[in-house]
Here is the input.
Amino acid sequence: MKIFKYTLLLMLCALGLNTYAQQNTYCNPINIDYGYCPIPNFTEWGKHRTSADPAIVNYKGDYYLFSTNQSGYWWSSDMLNWNFVSRPFLTQEAVEQTANKWDDLCAPAAWTMGDTLVVFGSTYSRIFPIWISTDPKNNKWEKAVEHFDIGGWDPAFFTDDDGKLYMYNGSSNVYPLYGIELDRKTFQPIGTRKELLLTDGDKIGWHRFGEHMDNTFLKPFMEGAWMTKHDGKYYLQWGGPGTEFSHYADGYAVSDSPLGFFEHASLPLSMKAGGFIRGAGHGATFQDRWNNYWHTSTMVINVKNNFERRIGIWPAGFDSEGNMYCNTTFGDYPHYIPTGEADHLKSQFTGWMLLNYNKPVLVSSTLGTHYANNIVDENIKTYWSAKTADKGEWLISDLGEVSTVYAVQLNYADQDVEFLGKTSGKFHQYKVYSSLDGKKWDVLIDKSNNKTDVPHDYVQLEKPVKARYLKLENIHMPTGKFAISGFRAFGFGAGEKPSAVEQFMVLRTETDKRSAWLKWKPVENAYAYNIYIGIEPDKLYSSVMVHNVNEYYYAGMDRTKPYYFAIEAINENGTSTWTRGEAK
Here is the structure.
């Protein structure tokens, strides 16, 4: 059974464009007005946007998103359109007493207790209040506790079915995650903190620090606790082994009790090690209004600073045997947002393929070495920059053939931006044109009157269009140069899907059973491959997308267990059937 392979029967092309029935979609990273890094010595390589460590809570049918250093929070009724609420949570006393005046909400905890939404930011300094609200949409908050003496870094709070309240916290490559029961009314500790969990890199490969999971110079970090209860089991989630790396992921461990003993799962819960933007660690699990599970987590840029990051949202859930999963396959491609109960073991991926990977690009001007081909190289770390932010700077993306375009994602990069911290009243304005021949252009998207900040703007077209060329024209930038890390067109090409991969080999080392070398015969008309990973043949819950290569080193295995793999080829027209492999 092909878990996570999209199963939607895309009859649209066969039936013709007039039969297209629109269902709302989204595309990671989520398009919110990320604040700029507020810390001066974190911006010495260039000022930039950033946020991370998200916590999303379903409160009275709306979704509330809190994340690091945003001087406020967002709410949404549909997980598509997010409304920012400006709110300083750091008190004047805290500003006066702390050396770090920028951690307004660093790695925040958010949870519900009865009819109340509760928020607390990371601190051990006893100067950060616990805030409560019954009307957060209208920014009405009060302090439940002025000084939460016990404190906690990367905290998470969990209310059990019996009403008992627990706090989990920890952010270290030396010390474990901790848990403690709190008095529900006073928030005072009951007893002392209990050591709950450490990484186990000697046994489970993905726990190891480093881009290649090799523990080159540091021990792995464990941070960002979160607790979910399902069918009587307690799932303690954590982020690691380092926020700088492509394999930044959330793991989980399971117990019969809220304070342990917890046993590690062999697979990460959320891992997104490939594609346009990587990383899926330090996050939170929540349910929508139809009780579908979702997982939100931190995504990695880390060019201008190690903590230059974004936020993603993924379908998640539990299988019939109680295994927790999170679907990051095609995780930065368009996905449907359900409007009712959904089976997240079946992907919400639309099936719309990337149409312009490594295709020709023309631009109006180029600043230094920020070349045009960076627009289409599927790497958010690289970007093209025009010489100015002037109205009329442009780029033209050649899709290579007349294709059917369903959606466009426009990712701005930060080049010579001016801001520190959260700003308001800033906006982007642009137009996108389409053409069949590169001579006659039609307006496809008109945001010339837009007044919102859209750093990762994603536009699902009302109707798909036929086009070979897409032109993006700048009208207004909020700050900096007109710079683009990815101008991505999604839909269907006019050709054939790729053939299945042949000669797929999984070579597991004898000396270190945590590692394997995957190798395969290249597929001539494929630009990328999805590799699926699991510890049962029909539960391949992890995946990674690789571009323009025919090998992959995976060092993330549990050395005590067999592993199962599958690979599919990807091009502008779709995906191939799976080819399977095994590492005993």
